[in-house]
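Bumping with the actual sequence this time:
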Amino acid sequence: MQKVSASGDQPANINASADSSIEGSLPSLTNSWNTEFSLHITVPREVYLKAQAACAVRKHDEAFMTEIKIKKDVATGEFSCRGASR
């Protein structure tokens, strides 16, 4: 639990993992793939489809990458979701 000041002088308790029980049962929005040291990095179709499926479980239309980390020949993408399912 993290303490932050709500008004500058009185601490308020904020639970940083309030949704952890919900998130723990949902598919991950973090995916990694081998880049084979390519100069041009794109998200492989199977990685995108995995993120898309994770968003569908969350009742969203589309997955999009918000962050990418590269370490040697492995890229790790953080995805998020947008749009409400119909």
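The tokens above came from a reply further down the thread. The longest helix spans residues 45-57.
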